[in-house]
Every structure is written in C-alpha cells, then in structure tokens.
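TA notes, week 10

Several of you asked for a full example with nothing omitted. So below is the full record: structure tokens for the whole chain, then the designed sequence directly under it. When grading your own attempts, check the secondary structure regions first.
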C-alpha cells in the first residue's frame, strides 16, 4: 500500500511534467538543446514575455472625490472596476497620513508609495479593512481611483504601501498630491 505522502509527491511530479510538456508545445522546439532537454531559462523568459503582453494595466478611473481611502458600496464579485461605487466620504483622509514617501519596491524594480498613518488614521484604517474583508477599497488621488485592492484581512500597524504598474512620474505626482493636504 502506498503512503499518502508518496502519492502526493507522485501527483505533483506528474503535474509538473504535464506543465513542462504544455510549455514546450506552446513555446516550440527553440527551447530544447540538441538531445531534447528543456532549457528552463529560455522557457521562463518566453513564458514571462508571452504572459506580460496580455496583462491589462489598470487605468485610473476619474471621480469627483477628495483624496482618501474609500469603502465601496453595493459591491459583488461581478462588479467591474468602472462600476465601483464609493461611499460619500473617505474613511482615511490626507490629515490621517503622517508620512508619504516614494520607494523602490523590495519585491521588484517598480516604484511604490509608502504611507505612515497617524495614530487615529491607523485605527480608522484597521476598522475600514476589518469591515470590508472580501471587498475592495478604493484609493483616490487627484480625482482618480488609482487602485482598488481587495481586502483579505484586517490591517493594523498604520503602514500602507500603494503599488501598481505606475511610472516614476505618476508616483511623483501622487506623492505631491498626498503631501499637499
């Protein structure tokens, strides 16, 4: 009788082989050396290049709202980004932010905005995220929704990062807008 652990390992191995086969078929023979071995560096690069071409960049959504973090209203999983409805007033306002700075992400080479909230702002943000688990919150800067992250768990500690597919200039403009309370 086979142990459950060995069966899981065998299943994972077979799944990996199938994925490699599919990748080779989709990438073609250019990823194999003379004896038919797969060159993982080429496959990885090709898969990443082919995948990133199809990624749709989030486009900021114009709104007539002040800068801040907003809870969403009447949200369900079928709601598209452009149809997101925001509460009338933001839960987090610029006054609730004590520090704003541009940083290079520790996960990739893109820029992000790091915020430190005031003590009161940290309490408000924890409450906002606690009440909106499974739903998105909208971050509005300069009359645009710049990102709509979905809340997975309550967030405490008063530190927030805003990241996305932003150019350095876009980040600089957002930082300036947040600093000008």
């Amino acid at each position: 009788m086979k142990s459950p652990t060995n069966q899981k390992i065998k299943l994972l191995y077979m799944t990996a082989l199938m994925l490699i086969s599919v990748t080779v078929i989709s990438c073609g023979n250019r990823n194999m050396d003379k004896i038919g071995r797969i060159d993982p560096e080429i496959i990885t690069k090709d898969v990443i290049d082919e995948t990133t071409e199809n990624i749709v960049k989030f486009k900021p959504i114009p709104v007539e709202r002040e800068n801040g973090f907003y809870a969403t209203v009447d949200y369900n999983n079928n709601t598209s980004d452009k149809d997101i409805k925001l509460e009338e007033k933001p839960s987090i306002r610029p006054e609730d932010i004590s520090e704003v700075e541009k940083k290079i992400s520790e996960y990739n080479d893109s820029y992000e905005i790091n915020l430190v909230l005031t003590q009161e702002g940290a309490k408000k943000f924890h409450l906002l995220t606690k009440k909106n688990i499974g739903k998105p919150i909208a971050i509005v800067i300069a009359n645009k929704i710049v990102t709509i992250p979905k809340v997975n768990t309550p967030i405490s500690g008063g530190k927030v990062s805003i990241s996305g597919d932003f150019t350095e200039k876009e980040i600089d403009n957002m930082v300036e807008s947040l600093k000008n309370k």
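Helices lie at 4-27, 40-52, 119-131, 168-179. Use that as a sanity check on your answer.
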